C-alpha cells in the first residue's frame, strides 16, 4: 500500500490546477494524481471530433497562474491540450501522475484519519491511502455519452457515431451527414464537417440561443504587444471576467429584452427570408441553458453558403437511408452523429463509504459547492455553468490548500462540515437551480442538495466565491477540525505504509 498526504483524482484541467497549488502553497505535502485513462488532459484529450474547441475564452478557461499566449482566445482542442500538458511538464506535475489508475472504491476511516482507495491499475488491483482526497475527474462519464433509444436504429445502413467516441479513420468527404442535437457540440460539428461533406444537416428538437464572437480577442492581443505576458494575461482576464459577469446579470435581470437582442443579432447574420422563429427562437429564457458560442460566426457562414442546414422537429425513427420525423418528413444521410449530450458522473463514479456506511450523495448537503456534509477531508471540483470551468477550479484548489494548512496549524488531521442545529430543518434544493439543460435535469436527483443559507449554497457566482475562498474565515461554526478519538495531536504516517516522495 502506498501512502501520500493528498490524492488527486483526474489529470485534466482541475487536477493540474490542484497539483500546482499544492506544490506552491503546501510544499511539504506529498501527493499523487491518479488518472484512469492512459493519457493526460481530460476533456481535451478525450474528445477528438472535428472542430473541437472551447466554448469559453482562454483568458478565463486558462489557469490563473499560467498565461495563455496564443492569438485565438476561442481555441481548438489540440491547442488547449498542449497548454494543459505543457503546464504539467513545466511544473513537474507529470512526475506525480499515475496513468491507467482508475479509482473504484474510497473508504474513510475516522479512527485512522485517512482514505483507503481501491484502484485498478495496469498491474491489477492496488491500494492507496491518503489523508486528503481531491476529486478532479470532471462532471461527466468518460466511458459513454447520453444516447436516447432511437426506434429503428438497427435499420440504418450507414454509420452512427457519438462525438464522445469519434473514430480516427472516419471519412465523411462527399457524404451526407445528419447531426442530431442543438448544443455546443452539434454547432461545432456542423461548420467543421461542412467544409468537406456533401451537406450537413443539424436536426434539433428545439432551438438554442447562439451568439457570434471573434475567435481572437483584439484587446488581449494588443496588450501582449506592449506588456509582459503575465500583465497582459491578467488584464485580459479581469476584462473578460467582468464583462462576462455583467452580461450574465443583465440577461437574467431582463430576460425578455435579452432574448430580443440575441435573436436580432442572429437575424442580421442570415438571409432575410431565413426562418428565425422556427430555428433560432428558444422557448426558454437566456441562460436557462448555456448560450452556444460561434467563433467568427462559423455556423452562420455555413448556413449562408448552403453547405449546411437546420431542421427543427421531432424524430420518429431511423430508416434504412436516414431518419423519419414525426411530421412525415424524411432526411437522408450516410452518417448520423448523435450529439445528444453527456451522462453526469456522481463522485467521479467511485463507490464511497464513511466508517463503513455507504455514502449516498442525494442525502448530503453541499458545503460551499465543494464539500459534503459529514464527509471528512474530501473536496470535489465542479466548475460554473455560467462562466469558465477553470475559474472555480482554481478557487477550489486555493481552498483545499487553506484547509490543509489549517489542519497543520491546529495540529489535527480531520475537517468535516457538520450541520448546525438551526440548519437541520432548512429546505433542501437542487444542487444547481434555474438551469434546464437536459444533461443536468436527467441526473439532478443523483447529486447532493443545497440549502437556503450560507454556507450550504452552491452559488455559481465567481465574485461571491472569490470572497468566500480567499477571505472568509475557515472557522464558521460549521467546519469541525478535530483528531481521531484518542489521538491528542497530529501524528506521523503509519509505519506500515510506504510514503511517496513529496511533489
Fold and architecture overview:
This protein is of the alpha/beta class. 28% of the residues lie in helices and 22% in strands. Strands 1, 2, 3, 4, 5, 6, 17, 18, 21 and 26 form a ten-stranded mixed beta sheet that branches. Strands 7-16-8-9-12 form a five-stranded parallel beta sheet. Strands 13-14-15 form a three-stranded antiparallel beta sheet, with no helix packed on it. A hairpin with a 3-residue loop joins strand 19 and strand 20 (371-372). It starts with a strand and ends with a strand.
What topology emerges from the helices and strands here?
Blueprint: E1 2-9, H1 13-25, E2 31-35, H2 43-46, H3 58-61, H4 77-90, E3 97-99, E4 102-109, E5 114-121, E6 124-135, E7 159-161, E8 176-180, H5 184-194, E9 199-204, E10 210-213, H6 218-226, H7 229-253, H8 255-267, H9 276-279, E11 292-295, H10 298-304, E12 308-312, E13 315-318, E14 322-325, E15 330-332, E16 335-338, E17 351-354, E18 357-358, E19 366-367, E20 371-372, E21 378-380, H11 389-410, E22 414-417, E23 429-430, H12 438-441, E24 449-450, H13 462-470, E25 479-482, E26 498-499
Parallel strand pairs: 1-2, 1-6, 1-26, 2-3, 4-17, 6-21, 7-16, 8-9, 8-16, 9-12, 10-11
Antiparallel strand pairs: 4-5, 5-6, 13-14, 14-15, 17-18, 19-20, 22-25, 23-24
Amino acid at each position: 500500500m502506498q501512502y501520500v498526504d493528498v490524492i488527486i483524482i483526474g489529470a485534466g484541467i482541475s487536477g493540474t490546477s490542484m497539483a500546482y497549488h499544492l506544490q506552491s502553497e503546501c510544499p511539504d505535502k506529498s501527493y499523487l494524481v491518479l488518472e484512469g485513462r492512459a493519457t493526460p488532459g481530460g476533456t481535451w484529450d478525450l474528445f477528438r471530433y472535428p472542430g473541437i474547441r472551447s466554448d469559453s475564452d482562454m483568458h478565463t478557461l486558462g489557469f490563473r497562474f499560467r498565461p495563455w499566449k496564443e492569438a485565438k482566445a476561442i481555441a481548438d482542442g489540440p491547442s488547449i491540450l498542449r497548454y494543459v500538458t505543457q503546464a504539467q511538464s513545466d511544473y513537474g506535475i507529470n512526475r506525480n501522475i499515475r496513468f491507467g489508475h482508475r479509482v473504484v472504491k474510497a473508504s474513510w476511516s475516522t479512527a485512522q484519519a485517512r482514505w483507503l482507495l481501491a484502484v485498478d491499475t495496469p498491474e491489477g488491483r492496488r491500494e492507496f491511502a491518503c489523508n486528503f482526497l481531491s476529486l478532479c475527474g470532471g462532471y461527466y462519464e468518460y466511458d459513454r455519452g447520453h444516447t436516447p433509444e432511437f426506434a429503428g436504429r438497427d435499420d440504418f445502413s450507414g454509420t452512427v457515431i457519438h462525438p464522445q467516441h469519434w473514430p480516427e479513420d472516419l471519412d465523411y468527404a462527399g457524404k451526407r451527414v445528419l447531426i442530431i442535437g442543438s448544443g455546443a457540440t452539434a454547432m461545432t460539428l456542423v461548420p467543421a464537417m461542412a467544409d468537406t461533406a456533401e451537406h450537413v444537416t443539424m436536426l434539433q428538437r428545439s432551438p438554442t440561443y447562439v451568439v457570434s464572437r471573434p475567435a481572437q480577442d483584439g484587446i488581449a492581443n494588443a496588450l501582449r504587444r506592449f506588456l509582459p505576458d503575465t500583465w497582459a494575461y491578467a488584464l485580459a482576464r479581469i476584462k473578460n471576467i467582468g464583462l462576462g459577469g455583467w452580461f450574465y446579470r443583465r440577461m437574467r435581470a431582463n430576460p425578455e429584452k435579452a432574448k430580443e437582442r440575441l435573436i436580432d443579432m442572429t437575424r442580421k447574420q442570415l438571409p432575410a427570408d431565413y426562418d428565425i422563429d422556427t430555428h433560432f427562437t428558444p422557448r426558454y429564457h437566456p441562460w436557462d441553458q448555456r448560450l452556444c458560442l460561434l467563433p467568427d460566426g462559423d455556423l452562420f457562414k455555413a448556413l449562408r453558403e448552403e453547405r449546411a442546414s437546420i431542421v427543427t422537429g421531432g424524430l420518429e425513427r431511423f430508416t434504412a437511408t436516414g431518419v423519419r420525423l414525426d411530421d412525415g418528413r424524411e432526411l437522408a444521410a450516410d452518417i448520423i452523429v448523435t450529439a445528444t449530450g453527456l451522462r453526469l458522473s456522481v463522485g467521479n463514479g467511485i463507490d464511497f463509504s464513511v466508517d463503513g456506511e455507504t455514502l449516498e450523495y442525494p442525502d448530503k448537503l453541499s458545503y460551499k459547492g465543494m464539500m459534503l456534509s459529514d464527509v471528512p477531508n474530501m473536496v470535489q471540483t465542479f466548475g460554473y455553468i455560467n462562466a469558465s470551468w477553470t475559474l472555480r477550479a482554481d478557487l477550489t484548489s486555493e481552498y483545499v490548500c487553506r484547509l490543509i494548512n489549517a489542519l497543520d496549524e491546529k495540529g489535527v488531521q480531520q475537517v468535516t462540515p457538520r450541520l448546525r442545529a438551526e440548519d437541520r430543518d432548512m429546505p433542501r434544493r437542487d444542487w444547481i437551480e434555474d438551469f434546464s439543460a437536459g444533461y443536468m435535469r436527467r441526473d439532478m436527483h443523483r447529486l447532493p442538495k443545497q440549502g437556503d443559507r450560507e454556507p450550504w449554497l452552491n452559488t455559481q457566482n465567481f465574485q461571491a466565491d472569490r470572497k468566500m475562498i480567499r477571505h472568509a474565515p475557515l472557522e464558521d461554526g460549521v467546519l469541525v477540525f478535530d483528531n481521531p478519538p484518542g489521538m491528542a495531536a497530529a501524528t506521523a504516517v503509519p509505519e506500515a505504509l510506504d510514503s511517496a516522495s513529496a511533489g
